[in-house]
Amino acid sequence: MLAVLSGFVEELRQAGLPVSLTEHLDAAEAIHHIPLEDREGLKYALGATLVKSQSHWRAFETAFDVYFAHRGAPLNSGIEGLVDETGDVAQGDDRSTFAATGAEGVGARGESGGGGAGGGGGGDGMTAEELAELLYRVLLGGDQAQMRTLARFAVERYAGFESGRPVGGTYYLYRTLRNLDLDGVLERVAAEIHLRGRPDGSREEPGGSTLKERLAVDEYRIKAAKIRAEIEREIRRRLVEDRGAKALARSVRKPIPEEIDVMRATSEELGDLRRALHPLSRKLAVRLARRRRRGRRGPLDFRATIRHSMSSGGVPIDPKFRHPRPSKPEIFVIADISGSVASFARFTLHLVHAISSQFSKVRSFVFIDGLDEVTALFEGSNDPAEAVHRINTEADVVWMDGHSDYGHAFNVFYQRFGDQVTSRTSVLILGDARNNYHASESWVLAELSRQAKHVYWLNPEPRSYWSSGDSIVSDYEPHCDAVVECRTLRQLEKFVGGLS
Amino acid sequence: MTLSELGLPELGPPRFSSPADVRERLARVGYLADVGIAGVVHLADRLVKPVLVEGPAGTGKTQLAKSVAEMTSSRLIRLQCYEGLDEAKALYEWNYRKQLLRIQAGQVAGSPAQIGEGGDASSAEIWAELEEDIFSEEFLLARPLLEAIRSEEPVVLLVDEVDRVELETEALLLEVLSEYQVSIPELGTVRASRIPMVFLTSNNTRELSEALKRRCLYLHVDYPDLEREREIVRTKVPGITEELADQACRIVRSIRSMELRKAPSVSETIDWARTLVVLGIESVDEKTASNTLHILLKYQIDIERVGKELLGSRDRPVPG
Q: Are B285 and A283 inside 8 Å of each other by CB?
């Protein structure tokens, strides 16, 4: 057990979680107090001792599933092997047993119940129709165990599992979900609800109320998410059986939100990022404000020091310092919001505006090939997320064809706003500098860097991609104070924190 | 870590026999814990570690500590944190007024007035005696942390909203949390005679220091799932029908799934359910929901959004 724990801790460290030696020892002690067969208990014991931040929980959970997977069900023994080792369906014809539990669970809707699963007979797995029907019924009234069994059937039937292939689960998950058509079934249920008030038909209200309808749909949506999670878990379990925990952990590792590559994030990860962004900006603001309050020591005030040394016979015992002049920088953000880098630009705009109290002024400009100022959108609302959303619909950023043209956008910026850039302004440019082979017009940046205090370029692409293809970072680089690779929230936080 | 190494008294008998035991006894004092909460409380007792409880506001973090105190029939000692909290407020303070009185009383009684002046043996002796006297326990004002350590009876120490103190002040807690002792220069080290259970809560407004986190077990308390919330509502709101509780919790769950500035907390769910009961409502429909929405949601922008998306109302719900 201790060896498994060491491997597990090592895996957590690989995934980016800071696990100290003390915490490792604590975990080792904690598992003494947990009955070994209690998997849930083990999970919480390890979680409490090893994971000290909520945002790391998802990474922990994935690793936990891999290292402490449900084992025992032999692979490739057809349906028999599929049914849960927990023993709720022990032996005999598993499928009919399942059909029985299934029908029991759905109760009132049993009229079409027996037909689905019981009828097939032999063969390897169910037909697509049977599975779809089963899914529909589990969705309406299944419990956790039935969901798990459904997940096993579905994975068996659709995933096209190939032993020894070094892939993460994503491919299998995609295949299973596409064939199972979870969303389609969900829509079907929603449509039925819309027609009849409630799915069980107990209350026939013509026209149904929106509230009830919405509640019912939400209910099924949550169930569907659970089924999806079960499928994911099932796939992972099978992969572990196939290739062992250590090998698999590397390919299914989930990055912690601070380290997700913004440009490659899936929509699920983007959700994580959005949630992580809010506390992040709050923390950053508090930290910056504290630093400003505490850093009250200016340079030595020579005159005052000498004056005070009179009382100690001319020995400057007590040095005096000038009060520093509080200088909050002005920030101009110029962001490319064309498709490829849009999400990155949005996160940065969100962050900068969320801590705008730390700057004397923040102005935002967005461009694709035309350029527009969007500061007003942020000032009008006190919810940066809302404002970021409105940028897409309200900013006028397309000039010709809607492909990024940095040169033209910079040109417009210079003509319209160039004279407002002063020696107290820091200019932030966000983009990948993929210019679609337009003219670079880098003289604008040269001019800006002469006027402004700093010009920074944040590039969401990995450094090795810079200046390849139509990326012309190298044209702009000489005119910037720094070009920073900024792919994750952590990098972004570090940069913004250093700004003020 | 072993207890004898730390010079701590032997750990008493375990407070709980198993996580299930914790759960059951918590339920008896009206706190419905889930598997995670019960497991961590059980572990905290066995590993002699403080628990750091984090989570959104209004999910019962503080209540957990209170309930644990109640079920173990211990005294709850609470340290409310705020910016600017210092040693004198958290650990201990010398009662200097009383010290002054003691010195003056000594002056009146005898005549040791020439302290430091005469330099003869007797006055130095008197001063040493006096010094020893005024830095004794009698003149010590115990603040929550010291009080929890010194207490003879069983206590639960709650350090509330620990994220509000500055990073530097956190260090004050470290000695107490890991060694269960307080060092007072004039007196020496005060060790715990009984090890208290310690809970720290945080609303996550800033990252706590690694040193603090390392010393604690971490527990994230999130919004409860539907079944648990329904149970909570039913225990906390007397006279509510099962159907109404179920309906209320379902609505709250749907509201939480939306993107809001502030999602309704458990305490707000309870308030809302109470209101529904008081108003004599048996089943929630759009109208009652939109009329009472301001109990669940505290921002106008949220109320409007929920009104539009969930209740399908075009016009603004009327508060009040």
A: no
| Distance from C-alpha of B16 to C-alpha of B1, rounded to nearest angstrom | 20
Q: Which residues in chain B have their CB less than 8 angstroms from residue A33's CB?
A: 42-43, 46-47
Q: pLDDT digit string (tens) for A40-51?
A: 888 888 888 888
For A114, residues 6+ apart whose C-beta sits below 8 A from its C-beta are A99, A103
Report how far residue A63's alpha carbon sits from residue A72's, in angstroms, rounded to the nearest whole number. Answer: 19
Partners of B166 on chain A (C-beta within 8 Å) are 290
Quickly count: other Cβ atoms within 10 Å of residue A242's Cβ: 15
Instruction: Find the Cα–Cα–Cα–Cα dihedral A402, A398, A376, A284, rounded to 10°.
Output: 20
Sort out which chain A residues have CB atoms less than 8 A from B201's CB and list them: none
Interface contact B47-A57, CB threshold 8 A: no
Task: Tell me the pLDDT of chain A averaged across its residues.
Answer: 73
For the beta carbon of residue B53, count every other beta carbon within 10 angstroms: 26
**Surface of A (126-165) touching B: CB under 8 A:** none
* Long-range Cβ pairs for the range A89-97 (8 Å, 24+): A89/A149, A95/A120, A95/A126
- In whole angstroms, give the CA distance from residue B272 to residue B293: 8
Measured between beta carbons, which residues in chain A are less than 8 angstroms from residue B214? 20, 22-23, 52
Grade residue B53 by pLDDT with cuts at 50, 70 and 90: very high
Domain definitions of chain B by residue range: 19-88+143-220, 92-140, 226-309
| Residue-wise pLDDT tens digits, B75-111 | 999 999 888 888 888 888 888 888 888 888 877 765 5
Tell me, what's the pLDDT at A250?
Answer: 66
CA B45-B220-B21 angle, 5° bins: 40
DSSP-based three-state secondary structure for A263:
helix
**Sequence-ordered list of residues with C-beta below 8 angstroms from that of B239, at least 6 positions apart, any chain:** B277
Distance CA A443, CA A446 (A): 5
The answer to whether the CB atoms of A209 and B206 lie below 8 A apart is no
Q: Which of B200, B209, B164 is nearest to B49 (CA)?
A: B200
Q: Which residue in chain B has the smallest CA separation from A287?
A: B206
Task: State both tokens at B206.
Answer: 């800033």
Residue A48 contacts B where some CB pair is shorter than 8 Å: yes
Cα A460–A272–A178 angle (5° rounding)?
95
Query: Is A357's Cβ below 8 Å from some Cβ in B?
Result: no
ipTM above 0.85, yes or no: no
> How far, CA to CA in Å, does A228 sit from each of A161, A222, A319, A440?
17, 10, 67, 47
CA separation for the pair A354, A478 (Å, rounded): 30
User: Which chain A residue has the Cα nearest residue B163?
Assistant: A283
Give the gap in angstroms from C-alpha B268 to the nearest C-alpha of chain A. 19
Q: Which pair of tokens denotes residue A103?
A: 């029908």
Beta-bridge partners for A482 = A456
Query: Which candidate from B219, B251, B259 shows the least CB-CB separation from A215?
Result: B251
Query: B19-88+143-220 belongs to which homologous superfamily?
Result: P-loop containing nucleotide triphosphate hydrolases (3.40.50.300)
* CA-to-CA dists, residue B87 to B91, B93, B185, B313, angstroms: 5, 8, 13, 54
**A299-332 pLDDT per residue, tens:** 788 888 888 888 888 888 888 888 766 666 788 8
Amino acid identity, residue A63? Answer: A
Quickly state the pLDDT bin for A98 (edges 50, 70, 90). very low
Sign of CA dihedral B169, A317, A323, A422: negative
Contacts of A79 (CB under 8 A, 6+ apart): A94, A95, A124, A125, A153, A156
Q: For B289, which of A40, A211, A383 is closest by C-beta distance?
A: A211
List of E strands, A53-181: none
- Are the C-beta atoms of A149 and A108 separated by less than 8 Å? no
Distance (Å, whole) CA B82 – CA A121 = 69
Confidence of residue B8 (pLDDT cuts 50, 70, 90): low
Beta strands (DSSP E) in A189-308 are none
